[in-house]
Amino acid sequence: MNMTQKKPDGFTNQRILVVPESLSVHCRNHPIMESIYFTDIGFFPYAMHHFRERSAGALGTILICCVEGSGWVQTNDGRRQFLSPGHTAIIPAGTPHQYGADEADPWSIYWIHVAGSQVSLFVGEDPWVASLHARDLKRWIILFEQCWELLELGVTVPSMLDGSQIIRQMLAILHHYRTNTLHSDKQNDYLMQAIQYMKQRLHKTMNLTELAQHVNVSKSYLIALFKQQTGYAPIDYLLRMKIQRACRELDMTDRSIKDIAAQLGFHDPYYFSRQFSRVMSISPTAYRQLNKG
């Protein structure tokens, strides 16, 4: 009989840490950590025959980030999703599940069990898989390693506090993908093309027609896309980019407000000041006088 071998853990060069229950209780009652903390964290390299099954789910939300090889995750809907490098599976607390490494090409995975009152705000309450772009995957791994380095110095309240804030950043990366799961790569390309075009022309005036023609979409489509992805209409987004640049000029240079306005395509400095005040709730002059840092 040809049987598939299964093992939950125990892999060469693995890293694994389980937070003591007494410390987890402290996290649950901590004014900062109660929103997001972790209970288990680890790395399984080349996890041959790795397999887990939890018929009642886990107490916390499980994050599994595949960096090499491949594997699979199956949740209570019976659907099996396959993971390859860059894929991160999110299994919410209490979700019955199974997962395991591919027999021919076993995965290497970073994994974390997270808990807290705000976890679902970042990753939702249903299982899903994020496909991280290379830049975000690299950042996610760097954050994991930073968290691990803290814990190697000792699993203490301070290290858990610092680690929980790192985990929050990792969840924020996943949140970005969650809010964009309904958008195709083509839609994201349209958005990036438009924003890049804006950045290259902050010194000019621009209207919606010009921007839509550059991206080769309709004006109504571009408005809907920007509002959905950024919360602002395209020209309002452009205005905020210009004001952000103006803030930098006011902070870093002694140039006059009139010169800064002209550099950003505002031929009327009074109109620029009104727009600056609308976005920043303070005039350019008052902003420059603020004590910052």
Automatic annotation (TrEMBL):
<dbReference type="InterPro" id="IPR018062">
    <property type="entry name" value="HTH_AraC-typ_CS"/>
</dbReference>
<dbReference type="GO" id="GO:0043565">
    <property type="term" value="F:sequence-specific DNA binding"/>
</dbReference>
<feature type="domain" description="HTH araC/xylS-type">
    <location>
        <begin position="192"/>
        <end position="290"/>
    </location>
</feature>
<keyword id="KW-0805">Transcription regulation</keyword>
<dbReference type="InterPro" id="IPR037923">
    <property type="entry name" value="HTH-like"/>
</dbReference>
<dbReference type="GO" id="GO:0003700">
    <property type="term" value="F:DNA-binding transcription factor activity"/>
</dbReference>
<protein>
    <submittedName>
        <fullName>AraC-like ligand binding domain-containing protein</fullName>
    </submittedName>
</protein>
<dbReference type="InterPro" id="IPR018060">
    <property type="entry name" value="HTH_AraC"/>
</dbReference>
<dbReference type="InterPro" id="IPR003313">
    <property type="entry name" value="AraC-bd"/>
</dbReference>
<keyword id="KW-0238">DNA-binding</keyword>
<dbReference type="InterPro" id="IPR014710">
    <property type="entry name" value="RmlC-like_jellyroll"/>
</dbReference>
<keyword id="KW-0804">Transcription</keyword>
<dbReference type="InterPro" id="IPR009057">
    <property type="entry name" value="Homeodomain-like_sf"/>
</dbReference>
<dbReference type="Pfam" id="PF12833">
    <property type="entry name" value="HTH_18"/>
</dbReference>
<dbReference type="Pfam" id="PF02311">
    <property type="entry name" value="AraC_binding"/>
</dbReference>
